[in-house]
Each structure stands twice: as structure tokens, then as C-alpha cells.
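Thought: the user asked what Major facilitator superfamily (MFS) profile domain-containing protein looks like in 3D. I have the sequence; next I should run the structure tool and report back without guessing.
Action: structure_tool
Action Input:
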Amino acid sequence: MASDSLTVLNALDTARTQWYHVTAVVIAGMGFFTDAYDLFCITTVSKLLGRLYYYDPATHAPGKLPHSVNNWVTGVALVGTLTGQLVFGWLGDKLGRKKVYGLTLILMVICALCSGLSFGYSRKVVIGTLCFFRFWLGFGIGGDYPLSATIMSEYANKRTRGAFIAAVFAMQGVGIIFAGLVSMIVSKVFLMNFGGKAFTTDEVFSTEPEADYVWRIVLMLGALPALLTYYWRMKMPETGRYTAIIEGNAKQAAIDMGKVLDIEIQEEGEKLAKFKAANEYSLLSNEFFMRHGHHLLGTMTTWFLLDIAFYSQNLTQKDIFPTMGLVSNAKNISALREMFETSRAMFVIALLGTFPGYWFTVFFIEKIGRFKIQLMGFFMMSVFMAIIGVKYDYLKTKEHKWTFAALYGLTFFFANFGPNSTTFVLPAELFPTRVRSTCHALSAASGKAGAMVSAFGVQQYTQDGNAHKIKKAMLFLAFTNMLGFCCTFLVTETKGRSLEEISGEDEKQNETQMKSNKTDSGRQDDGWD
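Observation:
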């Protein structure tokens, strides 16, 4: 950082790691716990919805959601998330991070509860109600992405910033584990008390009537962590960077940060005004394009390509588990048993593959760096998915199901010890304070566009369990990951540098200062002084 940088920024960058940094990780992280639980628990209940509402006696087969309905049930929250990211990201830069941070949780609580309700008995009404509230649930979830990342990056010091942002995002892994665990526990409790016969024995009552409560309970429980976090989120002060740089009030920034961090910040009115004036270019300006255009292109393309693969893994695992032999054939078990086995398989894969990857990133991001971790993750995901695609017929046999499971688990591990974490971290560091939240929102929304490609496109290839189609899907995902590897070269390493040094805000201020000094010097030489 330049020697004449603002004291307020230097104080935040050099502050020792304190308890409030950890508290902020937990407060922001619980939002991501809720996000992941709400987005991924639908995977465990979608097959149950098919058996409850789409059973046709003429087919003599368990009920199944039609492709279009399944795509909307699993994908509508992603549409809401994309919209919420853009709206709340923009509001975070215009109104402040803190002012809109609580609103996201309120939306998540209300819509998670309402997702379990129905305004009628017909399947059209049930699915319509579910999709309506899951859209607005996704809208609230979307706001959490840019706001949590930006708040954490602006609170943290430069030595541990990457690890703290990654730790916030790592709570997504905990949320995915709990989505499987809660679904497993709830379905098991109902199975022990109301368990039905296999479909081959009793086509009608193999779908237990009480199962209609199960999916509602699982979805509604997603409101609980958001509700518990709301009070603490409202107690968080506005970030010092936003208050000082955007609002131009270093005194208030010092007061706010002094309440939660043990740092001293001096008021520098004139210097702050010059810093602010030097960095007022907008997102659509030519200066932003010249300085950060390639960075924004890099963060948007890599997140888009990553989420095609990541959400394909998570949303289609219910279709791949039976092929792997981890879940029994639907005809041989009851509806609740099928949900229990799907939840159990999801829990095991998340615990052994997904969860460790997030925390490997937390521990190694400040040692290896964001850039190398992202390159490694994309490359390894591409390799393992290509192996699964090429050797799929061999791997799906009963004798090799654990080899299949290991390879599948490794794709999750390197997604999270790789681009799924770093694509969240980098947009929170690369861009100037004035547009940081908006740029993160654009990057995250691009990711959700990729997730929609998965929900409405890739899922078409896995829903019927057709081996040839699943092979095609895996090879396509291997290709998208290799494209992500190439697009990573558009971003730069941010490890160990201040946010202003990374974004060029210090450099811009110094350029303005030098021009001012030259003007003053010229005036003195001409006898103007």
C-alpha cells in the first residue's frame, strides 16, 4: 500500500485478527448455511413430490415429476437467486451494505415457511404455490451473495481476508450436509412410524399418506437458522470502507469500527475528499472498462462455467445415485424409504467429498493463493468428470460402484477446494469500493445463469437414468470445466494485498495527487505563489 494511503484503510488492513472477525464470519456464514440448505434440500424431496402427486395407475410405475415440472421445482429458486443478486448487489452500493442486509433474511424466513404451505389440494396448486414461494426464497438468497462477500472483505485485514471470505462461503458445505441430514432424520422418523410396503407389493400405499407432511417439514425448517441470525446481523455496523470512502465520513467509520474492533482511526477530511474524488468513476465508464473490464469478464465467465458443473452435480445426484447402486430401485421400496436412501447418499457424499473441499480452501488460500487453487480445481474436476464419462459403462456395474462413488466424490472435493470457493472470493477483492457489491452481484448472477443451464438443460440428460445420456452430460461438464480453466487467466492473484492496491484506488489517488503537485509546482515556477 502506498505510504500516503488513508489511515482508515491502513488501520483496517493491518488490524490484528480479533474475535469480532470470527463473529462476522459466523453471522455472514449462517446466511450461507441457510442458502445452501434451502437450495439443495429440494434435491431430497423432489422424488417424493413425484410419488405423491404424479402417480398414474395406468403406468404401473412409481409417480415421477414430469421433466418440465421437475426443472421448475428445482430451478425456480435459481431464477429468483439471479434476480436477487442483481437487485441487492446494486442496492448494497447505493444504500449501504448494512441497510439491506437484514431484508434478505426476512425474505428467506417468510418464504421458507410458506414453501411448505399449499393453497389447495390439486397438484397444480401445490406445485404452483411451491414454485412461487421458492422464487422469492431464491430472491432473498441471492441478496446474501454480494452483501456477505463484500461485508467480509471490507471488515477483514489483508493477511487473512481470503480465508475469512472463504470461511463464510464454506458454511454452504455445512448447509448441504444438513440438507441431507435433516431430510434423512425426518424421513426416518416417519418411516419408523408410518412405513409403507414396496411399490411392487402395494402400488397405492407404497406412497405413505403421511409423506405429504415430510417434504413440508424439511422445507420449512430452512427458516430456523435465518431467524436465529437476524438479531446479530442487525447489530453489525456499516463497514468502515463504505462509510469512509462512499459516504465520506471517516469520523463515523472510526466510531463504528471502534465499537467492534480494537483499532485507532484518525479523521482525515481533506485527504479523504481527494481519495473519494479520484475514484468516482462509474461501472459503465470507460475508465472502469480499461482498468477492470477483463477482471469482470474473468469473474463472470469462470463463475458461469463453474456453476454449470457444480449445480449439475448437486441437482442430478438423485438420478445418478440409483445408477451407482447407492439407492434401491424405486419399485422395490416405499416413497419414504426412497427419500431416506437418497438423503443418506447425499449426506455421505457431502460429508466426505463436498465439506472437506471448502475447508481445504480456507486453510490453504493464503498459502497457495486464489489463482492457483482455481486453476487446480477446474483441471481436476475436468479430469475426473472425463474419466466418469468415458468409463461410465464400466463404473456403473455393481462391482465398481465404490470406485464410481470415489470419483464422483472427488469431483465435489475439487469443486470446493477450487473454483466454487475462489469464484466467490475474487469478485469481493478485485473491484473498487464504489462498485464492489454490484460487480460481485454481476459475477454471482452469471453463476446462477450457469446453474439454470444445469437445472433446465443438463438435468434433461440424467432424469431417465439413460447411460448414454449421462455419459454425454459428464463429458459436456468436463469440457465446461476446461473452459473455466482457460478463463481463469483473465483474473489476477490478490493474496496479501490491500483492497485498494488490488483495485487500483490507491494508484488512482496517487496519480491525482501527482498531477496536483505538478500544477502547484508550475505555478510556483511561474511566480504565481
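Thought: the tool returned a structure. Summarizing for the user.
Final Answer: Structure for Major facilitator superfamily (MFS) profile domain-containing protein predicted. Residues 286-324 form the longest helix (39 residues). The chain has 21 helices and no strands.
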